[in-house]
Amino acid sequence: MKKFFAFTLAEVLITLGIIGVVAALTMPALISNHRKKVYVTQLKKSVNSVSNGVRLILAEHNVDKLSDTDFLLHVSHAKYDAAVRSYIANYFNVVDFKSVYGQYRTYKTLASNSSPSYNYLLNCYLMKLADGSEICISGNSNQYLSAYIDINGFEKLPNTAGVDFFNVFFDDNGIINVRHGYGYDSLNTMLYTCYQVGHHNAPEFCFKLIMHDNWEITYY
After folding, report:
1. Rounded CA gap, 82 and 89, in Å?
2. Burial of 97 (0-12, 13-18, 19+ CB in 10 A)
3. Count of beta carbons in the 10 Å neighbourhood of residue 209
4. How many CB atoms within 10 Å of residue 71?
5. Structure confidence by residue, pLDDT tens digits, 26-81
6. Cα gap 122→102, rounded to integer Å
7. Read out DSSP for the chain?
8. pLDDT at 211
């Protein structure tokens, strides 16, 4: 006579309970990691949008440096003039743009042991892309181009420096310049500045950390 083996109800319930506990412990980390990958993917798209626009400017002017055009000269003043409108309309894939010279935006900080937010002065041209991201470009007339990037737009949360808000610098050749400023060679400096409450360089150093870690968010 054949014998049949089966789990008892108690064994099934215990197994389901164990699975539930494991899921409860691992799901938050999985969700967080997925969200970080989404943020980095969007950040890449936004950075590429600026890079593509810069490459078009260099190619059509047949030069190697942005300072050989008048693009940096105009964006360094952050004044809403015809030249900037022409550059943005012709070389950047945007749905809207405006000058936000002298305007502030408040972003939360990663650290939670002090001031919860910081007011960033955006003396720049704000470009809105079709995917909802916002890029604010400005620069020095003969040295670099700066791009503040809100990867999902100011209307959407979390609006936190180092999470969905970054600052990227491009050198005179239109190449991403993570060595702009100071501190790139020191991981501790980058981590400290990325987390430091009320530090205006936090969006820049958080981006440097992402580049340092091969396009991954590892600092939170």
Report:
1. 10
2. buried
3. 23
4. 25
5. 666 678 899 999 999 999 999 999 999 999 999 999 999 999 998 988 888 766 57
6. 6
7. --------HHHHHHHHHHHHHHHHHHHHHHHHHHHHHHHHHHHHHHHHHHHHHHHHHHHHHT-S-GGGSSHHHHHTTT---HHHHHHHHHHS--SEEEE-TTEEEEEE-S--SS-SEEEEEE-SEEEE-TTS-EEEEEE-TTS-EEEEEETT-TTSS--BBTTTEEEEEE-TTS-B-TTSSS-TT-HHHHHHHHH-TT-TTHHHHHHHHHHHTTS-----
8. 93
Is the pLDDT at 10 greater than 80, yes or no?
A: no
pLDDT confidence of residue 152:
95
What does the alpha-carbon distance between residue 144 and residue 72 come to, in Å, rounded to a whole number? 8
Least confident of 114-118, 154-158, 160-164: 114-118
